[in-house]
Amino acid sequence: MTKTTFNPTRRGLLMAGGAGLLTAALPSYVAAQGAPIKIGFQLHRTGIGASYGRWYERTAQAALKLINDGGGINGRPVEILFDDDATDPARGAEVVDKLTQSDGCEVVMGTLFSHVVIGSAPRAAELKVPYLVCSEGYHVASGMLNRWTLQPGITDVRSQISAMAPWVSANLGKKVAMIFPDFAFGYDHRDFFTAAMVAQGGEVIAQIAVPPTETSFTKYFAQIPAETEVLYHVMVGPGVLTFVKELGEFYGSGAKPQMFGFIDSLEAVDTATPGLEFLEGTHFWEAHNRVKPADAGEHEAAYRAAVGVDDNGASVSDAADVATYSHMFSTWETLFAIKAGMEASGYAGPADRQKFVEAMEAMTDMPYGIERPQGAKVFNGKTHQVFGSQNISQVQGGKLVRVHQTLMEDGAYPDAVDYTTMSF
Amino acid sequence: MGESVKPFALHLALILALAVALAVLPPYPATMLARILVLAVFAMGYNLAYGYTGLLSLGHALFLAAGVFAAGLSAQFWGLSAGPALLLGVLAGGGMAAAVGLLALRTAGVSFMIVTLMFAQAGYLTILYFGPITGGDEGFTLPAASRVILGFDMSTDTPRFVAALFLFAIGLLVSLALVRSPFGRSMVAMRENEERSRMLGINPFTVKLAALVISGLYAGAAGAAYALLFGYAGANFATIQYSILPMLYVLLGGAGTTIGPFLGALLMFVLIEGTSRLARLWPVLEGMDYFVIGAALVVLVLFAPRGILGTLRERGLKWLP
Questions:
Q1: From B233, which residue of chain A is nearest by alpha-carbon distance?
Q2: What is the distance between the alpha carbons of residues A256 and A285, in angstroms, rounded to a whole number?
Q3: CA–CA dist B256, B180 (Å, integer)
Q4: A58, A84, A85, A116, best to mutate vs chain B, most B CBs in 10 Å
Q5: E strand or H helix at A284, and its extent?
Q6: What SS3 class is residue A40?
Q7: Confidence of residue A269 (pLDDT cuts 50, 70, 90)
Q8: Maximum CA pair distance of chain A?
């Protein structure tokens, strides 16, 4: 039996070691070049926000297809992993955890309901993963959250409300009664609209808060003062249709004040639903017009076709399936903002997450285009909040018709925070 | 091994196994396990009230939320550090249970269930009513400085895992000691036959109140720990969902068994996680997490009505405490 011995030279060892290192490094380089960029998406698939979640998912999928058809991000295909947060903050934090640590997502997109975003943001900061939310809450710009949380796809509610007051005051009346949900989202409306009306020389003569557990609303309508010139209403959740129907029953065919509502009261609800005839002639805030305006921007048709929505704001496959049109664009625009941020930072992997956030903070002008079908925007890197123009529509012939568009500066307010001075 | 030693050995082995699991598991399952351990403490407390004493409460979310907000608000407004905030949370849970118990224990059975549910709903609406302080439905994030115990930052993995395990171990061992003590037997006597216990000289009201307060202390500890370890306090912890969850954990794992609450919480998380993973392969399962859990519970009620460990105890492992 011949016994061979392994007696390598130093040069041989170095060459073998070098070759080994190259071989070991090659797959990761190849993977980094070709592997998909995974984006996590915390979705209201179940729970109180489910009607939004369904359309958020469709819209994000449509944006994803467009991005991938255009070559992906930094030459890599993009993949979205959706996970249900059950519209619950504790579950939301678990989902951020799972998408980041288990699924290997590079960034996580957050969703609509404020409590889920606020409950999840601390975990995103602990994991040092960019958390890009579509919640329109003021909690981002207020400074409550952290450096890793940004809102680049939808104007916050404080700005939306502030932009409405001048038009309401000038066109509908000075004495306003407000009816709103008795929780934080409603308080934003109460506080910011009241202040904005006072600044316009108007006044809010009644603030009627409706508890979130309420299923019957008529007793609250009885609190609306007789001298009310404008009734400002906003409601969210599964009770919205009951809310507007009972409002109609309350006034019947008699005299009623001017009405101004946030479309949240009617998101995913057909304005031509029997019982809603009383809304004829009333006004609504819309971020993105459900019914395609005659003078819509050049990219509106392509956006509607991509997300499967017809000119009336319903699904092309089911006219009864009305979209959450005034909110869902935020997922589309956020996805394109992620693309822009990754391209600006030369994002290659999780080690570049901080560079990505810094690139996002450096953004300012976000011009109108297929990336932003709702309209041009300006991003404030200090407050991590984007600002855009808003729309006021009137129900005419059972359809929402745009009658006014605000200027971006109508919704401006002083910065409350500078996240760029905070540590990562 | 003697029958009296086996339970201690089993509990110590479980704690040891969990310590090893936390050390070797990848970050995501380890973090989930930390969450499960904290919620298992909540369920252990529920088990002391329901599983051992027979008090079917639908108001435990109130005790959990008392812990969450006592710890969260004291950290937010008084700048309390995690140690004192946790202690305050424990006391708040116990105090709330004492206040509710003094009134609700005048009732029994279904009435007790409804009265505790009413208290919890009132608590939830109170949290919303004081929104400017409590953050209302949005809640608030805890300041980073308040999430430090003895120099260890609870927002980082290892200290968080150690803290969760430590809390769980204390809860489990105290629970074991309690159910094997004369007081524990009095608790069981309440569940089995309150009238006969009264004839034996036990004051049912005192025993039930004490059991409910201890249960509240557990809930308060779990609530405070959840807020401090995961950095968020919100009204969702006071919703009925958090009164039903510990009941499900206990029913699944085995009511009246010390380890059952942990086992139930673990299985529930595994079911949710499993369903959500499967949903990525079969979209028909999307959003079906709770349907699957419901189906699992129906199967359990039909084939193992005493829960997993309760059934095992019935079928041979009689030494299981």
A1: A119
A2: 19
A3: 12
A4: A84
A5: strand A283-286
A6: strand
A7: confident
A8: 110
Domains A33-155+328-381 and A157-286+390-410 share a fold: yes
Radius of gyration from C-alpha coordinates of chain A: 25
Mutation target among B32, B117, B133, B141 for the A interface, most CBs of A within 10 A: B141
Q: What kind of architecture, by CATH, is found in domain A33-155+328-381? A: 3-Layer(aba) Sandwich (3.40)
Contact check, Cβ <8 Å, A81/B280: yes
**Between 3.40.50.2300, 3.40.50.300, 3.60.10.10, 3.40.50.150, what CATH number should domain A157-286+390-410 receive?**
3.40.50.2300
- SS3 breakdown of chain B: % helix, strand, coil, rounded to 5? 80, 0, 20
Say if the Cβ atoms of B232 and A102 lie within 8 Å. Answer: no
Q: CA of A349: how far to CAs of A219, A249, B16, B78, in Å?
A: 56, 57, 37, 41
Residue B118 has pLDDT above 60, yes or no: yes
List the one residue out of A163, A65, A66, A54 whose CA is nearest residue A111.
A54
ipTM of the complex: 0.84
Q: How far apart are CA B111 and CA B100, in angstroms?
A: 13
**B283 falls within a domain:** no
Distance CA B103, CA B92 (A): 17
- Spatial distance between the Cα atoms of A241 and A247, rounded to a whole number of angstroms: 10
Q: Is B188 buried (19+), middle (13-18) or exposed (0-12) by CB count in 10 A?
A: middle
B141:A145 CB<8 A? yes
Asked which of A146-150, A237-241, B86-90 is least confident by mean pLDDT, the reply is A237-241
Among candidates B192, B278, B271, B218, which has minimal Cα distance to B90? B218
Domain boundaries defined on chain A: 33-155+328-381, 157-286+390-410
Give the domain range for residue B211.
5-236
Q: How much is the pTM?
A: 0.85
B241-253 vs B109-129: helix axis angle to the nearest 10?
140
Angle separating helix axes A325-345 and A353-361, nearest 10 degrees: 110
Ordered strands of the A37-43 beta sheet: A78-84, A37-43, A107-109, A131-132, A149-150
The count of structural domains within chain B is 1
Closest residue in B to A145 (Cα–Cα) = B141
Chain position carrying tokens 């129906």:
B298
Please identify which residue in the block is written with the tokens 């599964």.
A238
Contact call for A84 and B235, based on CB within 8 A = no
Q: Decide if A45 and B287 are in contact by the 8 Å CB cutoff.
A: yes
Q: Does residue A6 surpass a pLDDT of 50?
A: no
| A62-87 pLDDT, tens digit each | 999 999 999 999 999 999 999 999 88
Residue B288 is which amino acid? Answer: M
Contact B140 A46 (CB under 8 A): no
Residue of B nearest to A146 (CA): B141
Chain B: residues touching A (Cβ < 8 Å): 26-29, 31-32, 35, 121, 125, 128, 131, 135-142, 155-156, 226, 230-232, 234-237, 241, 273, 276, 279-280, 286-287, 289-290
Mean pLDDT score, B11-30:
94
**Residue of A42, A51, A96, A97 for testing the chain B interface, max B β-carbons within 10 Å:** A97
Measure CB to CB from residue A184 to each of B136, B155, B241 and give the nearest one.
B136
Question: Exposure string (b/e) for A206-245, b if CB count within 10 Å is 16 or more?
Answer: bbbbbebebeebeebbeebeeebbbbbbbbbbebbbebbb
Q: Which residue of A has its CA nearest to B134?
A: A184
Kindly determine whether residue B28 and residue A183, on different chains, have CB atoms separated by under 8 Å: no
pLDDT score for A13: 44
Which of chain B's residues have a Cβ under 8 Å away from the Cβ of A121? 141
